[in-house]
Specification:
Length: 554
C-alpha cells in the first residue's frame, strides 16, 4: 500500500536533484525578481544562449503573438512585449535537457503534440473567451506535463508501457495515474516548478488545474488561470489524443461556465491545429497526424445523450465518482498493477535508511534488488565518484550524472549508436577564487556551464558534479566527434569575454577527459565511462592542464 504523499515527496525530491534549470533560466529568474528589472542585463543574459535567443524570437514572430511587424532582436522584443512575457518564454523553453533524453521517439512525439496543443489552446482561450492576456496560460500549458517526463525517466519501461496502453484505449491518463500511484504527473510537475523557484502563480495553476474541486477551493480572483488551463487540457485531449469523452466534458462545461457560452469549438480546433503546426516548426518537431474531429464530435454528443438518459449525474464529477470498468481484452488492469508495483519499488529505493544519521539523506539500498536505470540508478555509483569533494563532503551530483549516463547507455544500446562522456575541470579554480574572489569564481563557473549547455549536439546533457567540474553526456556521438566538441568548447572559452578581476588571476583554461564507446554492449557499466574519462582528466592535469585526452572503450 502506497503512502501517496510520502511517495510523491520522495520522487519529487529526487527529481529536483536530478533535473535542474539551465543557468540562463536561473539568471533570468534572479534578474526579474528585482523590484526594478534591468532590461539591458536581462537581454544580455538571454543572448548568452544563442539557440534560446533564436527560438524565442521565432516564437515571438509566429502567429501566436500576432505582432504587426517582425521582431529582429531581443531589444525590439522587450520594447514590444515587456519583460514579463519574455521571461515566461525563456522559462518555458528552458527545460532541463536530460528530462528528454532516452525517452522513445513515439512517446516524446505524443508528449509534444499534447503539450503544444494545450499551451496554444490555453493562450487562445484566455485571450478570446476570458479576455485576459494569455502569456501565463501558454507557459502553464507548456510546463504542466513535465512530471510525465520525470516519471518516464525514474520509473522507466513500466510507466512508458502504461502510457502506450492509456493512449491506445483512449483512457483518462490522469485518472489512471491516480488509481495506480495515488497521484498524477501534474502534481509532480508542480513540485519540480516549486523546487526551481518559479513564480507561485504558475506553480499553483499547474498544481490545481487538473481538478475542478481544487480550482473551486481557490479565491474567486485566482480561479481564472487554472480554469483556462483545465479547458485547454480538455481540448488537447480531444485534438491530440482523440478522446471523445474529453470533448463531451468540454461541451457539458460550456453549459455551466458563462465564459464558454457560445464558444465556436469547430473554429477553435481548426485555429489551434494550425498554430500548433507553427510552434512545432519552431521546436523542429515531427508531430503525429491530426485526428478526425468530426467523428469525435459525433461520439461526444452520443456520450452526452447516454449520460442524460441514464441520469448518471454531473459528467464533470463522473470520473471521480464512478468505479472504472475495462473492456474484456483491455491491457490496462495489468498495466495499472505493474505501475503500482514499480512505484512501490521506487519509493522503497528512495526511502532514507534508518541505519545511521549520516546516511539519512542517501537512497536506501536493498541487497536483493538489482538497481535499474529507471529506479535506483544512482545507487551503483563507484567509490571514486562518491568520494569526498575537495571540501571533504560527499558530492551527490556525481550520482545524478551517473543516473543520466545509465539512461543514455540503455538508449544508445537499443538504437545501436555511440555514446561519449566529457568530464571538464576548470583549471586552478582554487587560485581563481582566492585571487579574484568567490563571486568572480562563481561567475566563471556559470559561464563555463552555459558554454557546455550551448554545445551543438542533439540530446546533450550537462551536470555539475564537483565545485569546478562538469559532466557532459553526448548520445549518438563517437570518440572523434566528442574530441571535436571538446576542442570547440576550449576555443569558445578562450574567445569569451573576460573581466579584469579574472585576468588578475591568470589565464582561464579547462582540462577535458573524454571516454567513448562505439555501441554499449549488453551489461555495459556506465561507471566504466566515468572512470575512464576521469583517468584521462587526471592525465591532462598531471601535464599542467589546459588540454584534452580521450579513450575509446571496447
Amino acid at each position: 500500500m502506497l503512502d501517496t504523499s510520502t511517495t510523491l515527496d520522495h520522487i519529487a525530491e529526487r527529481a529536483t536533484q536530478l533535473y535542474s534549470l539551465p543557468a540562463v533560466a536561473i539568471q533570468v529568474l534572479e534578474l526579474t525578481s528585482q523590484p526594478e528589472v534591468d532590461s539591458r542585463r536581462l537581454k544580455e543574459c538571454i543572448e548568452n544562449d544563442p539557440a534560446l535567443t533564436t527560438r524565442v524570437l521565432r516564437v515571438v514572430n509566429s502567429s501566436i503573438f500576432g505582432l504587426s511587424r517582425e521582431v529582429g532582436d531581443l531589444t525590439q522584443a522587450l520594447a514590444l512585449l515587456g519583460t514579463k512575457p519574455l521571461k515566461l518564454l525563456v522559462l518555458g523553453f528552458s527545460l532541463p535537457p536530460n528530462l528528454l533524453t532516452g525517452i522513445a521517439a513515439e512517446t516524446l512525439s505524443r508528449y509534444w503534440k499534447h503539450t503544444l496543443t494545450k499551451a496554444v489552446a490555453a493562450r487562445e482561450i484566455s485571450d478570446r473567451l476570458w479576455h485576459v492576456s494569455g502569456e501565463e496560460a501558454f507557459i502553464v500549458g507548456l510546463l504542466q506535463d513535465i512530471g510525465l517526463l520525470a516519471l518516464a525517466q525514474q520509473i522507466g519501461e513500466q510507466y512508458v508501457s502504461f502510457l502506450e496502453s492509456v493512449h491506445a484505449e483512449g483512457a483518462d491518463r490522469l485518472q489512471m495515474e491516480r488509481d495506480a500511484m495515488g497521484f498524477d504527473h501534474t502534481q509532480l510537475s508542480a513540485c519540480l516548478l516549486s523546487g526551481w523557484n518559479l513564480p507561485d502563480a504558475l506553480t499553483q495553476a499547474v498544481r490545481v488545474a487538473a481538478s475542478l474541486d481544487l480550482i473551486d477551493e481557490l479565491p474567486i480572483p485566482e480561479r481564472t488561470l487554472p480554469r483556462v488551463v483545465y479547458v485547454a487540457e480538455l481540448l488537447a485531449c480531444t485534438i491530440s489524443d482523440g478522446r471523445a469523452a474529453a470533448l463531451a466534458e468540454l461541451l457539458q462545461l460550456g453549459r455551466q461556465w458563462r465564459e464558454l457560452e457560445g464558444a465556436d469549438w469547430d473554429w477553435f480546433v481548426t485555429d489551434i491545429e494550425q498554430r500548433v503546426a507553427q510552434v512545432a516548426d519552431v521546436f523542429n518537431l515531427q508531430l503525429p497526424s491530426a485526428l478526425d474531429y468530426r467523428d469525435m464530435l459525433s461520439r461526444a454528443h452520443a456520450q452526452l445523450a447516454t449520460v442524460a438518459l441514464d441520469a448518471a449525474g454531473d459528467l464533470l464529477r463522473k470520473r471521480a465518482s464512478v468505479p472504472i470498468s475495462f473492456p474484456e481484452n483491455s491491457r490496462l488492469p495489468a498495466e495499472l498493477e505493474s505501475l503500482t508495483d514499480a512505484v512501490s519499488h521506487l519509493d522503497r529505493t528512495l526511502t532514507p535508511s534508518p541505519q545511521s544519521a549520516s546516511d539519512q539523506n542517501r537512497p536506501a539500498a536493498h541487497a536483493s534488488d538489482e538497481p535499474t536505470p529507471a529506479g535506483a540508478a544512482w545507487q551503483r555509483a563507484t567509490p571514486q565518484m562518491l568520494s569526498a569533494s575537495p571540501s571533504g563532503s560527499p558530492v551527490e551530483d556525481d550520482a545524478a550524472l551517473l543516473a543520466r549516463l545509465r539512461v543514455a547507455v540503455s538508449a544508445c544500446r537499443q538504437i545501436r549508436s555511440p555514446l561519449s562522456l566529457l568530464l571538464i575541470d576548470v583549471d586552478r579554480y582554487d587560485d581563481l577564487a582566492f585571487k579574484a574572489g568567490d563571486a568572480t569564481a562563481a561567475a566563471v563557473l556559470l559561464r563555463v556551464e552555459a558554454l557546455c549547455r550551448g554545445l551543438e549536439h542533439p540530446g546533450l546533457m550537462c551536470q555539475r558534479v564537483r565545485e569546478s567540474r562538469f559532466g557532459v553526456v553526448l548520445p549518438k556521438c563517437d570518440r572523434a566527434q566528442a574530441v571535436e566538441i571538446g576542442n570547440q568548447l576550449r576555443l569558445r572559452l578562450r574567445s569569451s569575454a573576460v573581466s579584469a578581476r579574472e585576468r588578475s588571476a591568470g589565464p582561464l583554461t579547462i582540462s577535458i577527459g573524454i571516454s567513448a564507446v562505439n555501441v554499449p554492449p549488453r551489461n555495459f557499466a556506465a561507471e566504466d565511462l566515468v572512470e575512464s574519462a576521469d583517468r584521462c582528466l587526471r592525465g591532462v592535469a598531471s601535464s599542467g592542464g589546459d588540454g584534452l585526452k580521450s579513450i575509446e572503450l571496447c
